[in-house]
């Protein structure tokens, strides 16, 4: 087998033939300014083509086969992932300089005929180490550098102790994407994403204020390590003394290290048992080949990525957006296509859907296997190394190459799709829906309705609703007796949870911690319920199987949930403000300002004409509306851009956020003081007669109020607003089912490797076990972690 690779591509000539020495120099002269020698630190991709998964092992493909494109430079594989030195192969190792698009070939080395610069560049490419070598599983942990701050990290003796749960950001109320600063024990939120998920960047702000460099993400701490980020070094790092640094704050991460992976011997059997069920161990499975049946090689702890991407590219909107636009995306890809999200998504989608990399063995291969007495399916799949390297770069979690969560990666991917949308097309909109949150003050009984965007439905596991409680109690007693007597453990009994109980737990009211009642102007008890204000085309359901015990060890609910093929959630439709309900006043909580500044503000009356315009312009340069910036500076008493920015973060979702500054009743110190601390004193309830006019046209009352608030009660503009925001309209009945024909359902666990199960054409379930793709005989639908449901048109 011949292994070939192209180093540079340049236009010229016709046909694939060798050229005379004079012609070579003539063709290279116009392109000499564009050729440069790779420097230290440059990415030289020698293990994977930037546009395809072709390799010497792909039947009918040469090392340099590429989809047609206009760009003259290419980045191509000169090494292989597979062992071509085995007894199965005889090959010649040959390198050529190829002039594209017409495949002129120049054998290397060729010192006599090539200019010195080209020769040096070719030698540098051939001798460069692959950027993937450090990602091999055997050297995985060496991928991240050791932080230069780890050995001499200062930790304050301030008595801070971190509980195993119930964390929230010290500067806001966020309870996810939280980071523990390893110097002072502050718990703060990470950066925010386009959909308002993630955080408000308070961990980074804290570093800028204090210079404390290292933080660990809460929720990732296991006996094997955790995700550590260095703000000073601006990358994910390793902390060799992490156990010591965490113990300083009362977190013991190493108490389970007495046995492999921190698991007690008696914990191993239940996990293996479930894994055997998911992989359909002991069942002879029939391999599947062709378009849509291409597996993804496991790169080491990459199961979460494979699971999500197999599901994503089973959805028609993603197929059309990327694979359907392949010629245009490839033609207009940048000079370095390895760093272009749309190019890499298209490449991966084509690899999974084309069938080019999922072909059944030919007769000669089957005969060879019989002769070797090793007849077994040979499914190679494709290796998404370039894709993984790109989507995980600069991400503290996914760049760590440890076990990750499929749900977190799904949201990360949605974020990337949104940021790199192709024109106006955004395929991730198929997952987007609006959630109506109703918060009620328990003391005054008044309510507030708000809406937010979400992309998945998280269902709690209702363990108390298990239908086999007697069996579970008997099993637990038997297990403990076997442990104490050192006998073999009994066969696992898994809790059986009705799906209806999980759905009921989702819809139950939940307590709101630190609820601030605008009716009382003080903290009070509050409860929150969530409903669907709109429904997506594809509903992603996550079963919240993971939690933390009091010992800080992640625990997984080993349960069986009877997931339905058809899911009716009409009863979770949002209803809006109901007759007899009274809304909470539209007043925001006070901004926390240092006492000395607060005293100054309470005694100093700020005239609107005295607004600090320099602070206004600083905020406006960040992209905020000018009028909103003026209000922020005014209501924070000219305290500066930073304090005003905090006001903007609190108020930016309000309908009148960008409206001009108005102060009815201005002229008293008391009203000014109230305004400074968040009580605007403005009644934003639109006139009832205007609401009645809009509702008489057939629109819903809640929709009319929302439109009028967004347009300062201007009737004409409110009607335009309604027609430009169709997502606020009432949806038709929403019934969704597990996809039967579009490969839309997937089962995934946050484990280092293992199968995904999804359905195939003709209502057949297919199991995707890394690179192996087979027809499923016993699909374990009850053991899933994420499920994709397709909406049924009404």
Automatic annotation (TrEMBL):
Domain UBA: 610-651, 685-725
Organism taxonomic ancestry: Eukaryota, Metazoa, Chordata, Craniata, Vertebrata
EC number(s) given by UniProt: 3.4.19.12
Protein source organism: Muntiacus muntjak (Barking deer)
Molecular functions (GO terms): cysteine-type deubiquitinase activity; zinc ion binding
Catalytic activity: Thiol-dependent hydrolysis of ester, thioester, amide, peptide and isopeptide bonds formed by the C-terminal Gly of ubiquitin (a 76-residue protein attached to proteins as an intracellular targeting signal)
Domain UBP-type: start-end pairs: 145-253
The keyword DNA repair is annotated on this UniProt entry: no
Protein localization: Cytoplasm
CDD domains from the UniProt entry: Peptidase_C19B, UBA1_UBP13, UBA2_UBP5
GO biological process: autophagy; protein deubiquitination; proteolysis
This protein's UniProt keywords: Autophagy, Cytoplasm, Hydrolase, Isopeptide bond, Metal-binding, Phosphoprotein, Protease, Repeat, Thiol protease, Ubl conjugation, Ubl conjugation pathway, Zinc, Zinc-finger
Assigned protein family: Belongs to the peptidase C19 family.
Taxonomy, superkingdom: Eukaryota
PROSITE patterns referenced in this protein's UniProt entry, alphabetically: UBA, USP_1, USP_3, ZF_UBP
Main location: cytoplasm
InterPro entries reported in the protein's UniProt record: Papain-like_cys_pep_sf (IPR038765), Peptidase_C19_UCH (IPR001394), Ub_carboxyl-term_hydrolase (IPR050185), UBA (IPR015940), UBA-like_sf (IPR009060), Ubiquitinyl_hydrolase (IPR016652), UBP13_Znf-UBP_var (IPR041432), USP (IPR028889)
Chain ranges of the USP domain: 294-792
Protein name: Ubiquitin carboxyl-terminal hydrolase
A Pfam family matched in the record: UBA_7
Oligomeric form and interacting partners: Interacts with UFD1. Interacts (via UBA domains) with SIAH2 (when ubiquitinated). Interacts with BAG6; the interaction is direct and may mediate UBL4A deubiquitination. Interacts (via UBA 2 domain) with AMFR; the interaction is direct. Interacts with UBL4A; may be indirect via BAG6. Interacts with NEDD4.
Binding-site positions, Zn(2+): 169, 172, 189, 202
GO cellular component: cytoplasm
